Amino acid sequence: MSLREPVGHDAIRAGLKSAAAFAASGGSSQLHHAWLFAGPAGVGKFLTARWWASILKCPELGACGGTCASCRLVAGAVHPDVFETGPAPKDKNAVQSADEEIERKRLVGIDQSRALIQRLTLRPTRPGPRIAIMREAGMMTPEAQNALLKILEEPLGFAVIILVTDNPGAMLPTVRSRCRHLVFGTLSEDEVAAVLVDLGRSEAEARTAAACSHGSVARALDYDDEGLAGRELVLLAYEAARRDPLAIEPLVHALVERKESGYAMSDILEWQLAKVRASLGRRPPEPSEPLGRALDEAAAADPAVLIGEAETIERTIVALSRNANARLVIRDLLLNVRAFRL
Ligand SMILES: [Zn+2]
User: I need a labelling partner for 341 at 20 to 30 A (CA). Which of 147, 171, 231, 292 fits?
Assistant: First the structure.
């Protein structure tokens, strides 16, 4: 298994690369010993941590392109100086019950913290630092976090700990303050699509899933064929409703018919809301086909109309989440959508 450069987060990766080069020029004691990689779930924080670990251990500082023996050991999570801990990674292919999911996410307790410290305090067997990567570090109990404090307050000089979390608020302030923070944003639609194509999805599938992903590969991967078909239908309805009032009734019917349409609808509406807000002056998301069209239209619209549309979408999302009569809610939205563009 070779280790590829993660997609996106260019500035963060450039910074990590130069930190690694700097450390290599003067010994690992120059490298900050504790890092907090924070940001939304599924945007590549953990992969970036693993990739950086490979660079810190690579004899060529990553110039091998992830193909050298050292980098391959890190990629396979079997490098003697790099270890990964935290809740077990989610198995994307397994259908997990709620209980199993709770068990997977069982809080990381003091035993795991102690094991981490024990392994980190051993001296590196190969050039470069000892590295621990903790995924979902926000799951650590306060006791487990307190146990880590010792190693955070008295750096060993040859060890680096990377805490990865989508919930930095769950970390103790004393732990947070010892860490250098890197804040990861969401990925662009193009970046999510590129990852999906890499994972074997067709270009068309990848595009649609990416457009609904809110910049998270994990979310995009949740969309199976059935889910994608539902989302395409919602998009189609939203677009068609603008043009043809006669299309509304059959579309409402088709949407309500779909078992999963409530979920799909909220999801796609969140996306639509992001686009509307973007045209109100926030940074526009990456344009994509067939979805870029909506942004172009919105860009030309009157701000008062856009605010009205955003409010209607928000209201619809709330109503759907409260199990309101889906037929009425969806019809109301599509009628309003039409009014917004006339
Ligand atoms: Zn290498």
Answer: 231
